[in-house]
Amino acid sequence: MGGSVKDVQSKVELDNLVRTGAPVALHFWASWCEASKHMDQVFSHLSTDFPHAHFLRVEAEEQPEISEAHSVSAVPFFVFFKDGKAIDTLEGADPSSLANKVAKVAGSVNHGEPAAPASLGMAAGPTVLETVKEFAKENGSSKVGSQVQPVLSDALKKKLQHIIDSHPVMLFMKGSPEAPQCGFSRKVVEILKEEKVKYGSFDILSDNEVREGLKKFSNWPTFPQLYCKGELLGGCDIAIALHESGELHEVFKDHGIDSITSEEAKISEPVNLSGGTTQSTGLSATLTSRLESLVNSSTVMLFMKGKPAEPKCGFSRKVVEILQQEKVDFESFDILSDEEVRQGLKVFSNWSSYPQLYIKGELIGGSDIVLEMQKSGELKRVLEEKEILQKETLEDRLKKLIGSSPVMLFMKGNPDSPKCGFSSKVVNALREDGVNFGSFDILTDEEVRQGLKVFSNWPTFPQLYYKGELIGGCDIVMELRNNGELKSTLSE
Question: Counting CB atoms within 10 angstroms of each CB, which of 119, 282, 326, 384 has the fewest?
Fold first, then answer.
């Protein structure tokens, strides 16, 4: 045991090992997922530092029985076992959390000593070393302090700067200009086309190190990110605002970015065929025509394993659940029922796995991308942009936010870090009276901030609501508390 990762071949093998009671870390991965590959390196290095634990790996789609047993719907995904039972899970590419959870389930190399991180090396990523350092501190050791690397290594900083500087106008996006993999990336591509500028692009889905590193490097947590002469302009919302106001044209002009002519635009414009295909797919005309017809047979089309009522893999089930949660009408095709479609669509879409989700003939992506888009709100916006879902009005959104918790506080900052004294007072009053409440930071959303003033006819913040009705601001809350009426008012 220790220092290696073993591939699990069956559920019986896994169950037998778990029954021994030994610590087990199990990685569900997929060969097509870059994030899985990145996390597998981290996983392998951690196995060296925690030799008393079993480190196992499962190819999620190849072992559906094991994946189903642990409700795996996206990769990378980790399950941690101890004393014969599953005690924790982790979803997503988060090296820091992985190191922390492994350390907690597996314990140190020697009793009373934290695991030394030297063997993790640069491949494990500086966030892992940072986590191990913190874990060692909690156990009374500071031996690892001198070995911990900066948050971003010099090599990664140079790599990011080199990519940013590779073109005067540089776009970091999901997918490529010919086949964007999210609505926000697609919108910025359209804007740059309208601005008639040449630009370079980088698909952040193809390199998790760049994807995660650029968030810290730019101090900008989302994508796309648009740069001009090495300087970050912003994301989709800012690009739209600058474009609509005419400022983006001026920014490009000020930085010496010349507009391309109509003839140049025709020459340089990428070919964007249905489903992201190229002219040299090698597919027969008959199969190509059939695939095009299937992709466009419904406004929202899901190619999956099994049927919506009986998915045959966790990834397909997850996308079905997401579409149902978003209340989207969709059609599906069971790729297990037709091998020609199953293999042909991989080439047609240039996407090697299933499920595949299409909206109005355009590939959105697989389970991981759809899940991420739902979590970020991108999926709903794309569906609204394409008029598949009716766009939510501001009033509807405010009502939903107000009703998201029986006691709801709209404040500056969050309860653990208020950004104004009035918000801090209300938080303290609610906590001291033992009132459970939800909160929304109005500094993060100008639309909500201004809209709520009109909606509630209350011009300042914080604003406290109970069961959808406005209680008032700081003065009223403090008056209720001083009179001993706050808790009773919020529990009627």
Answer: 282
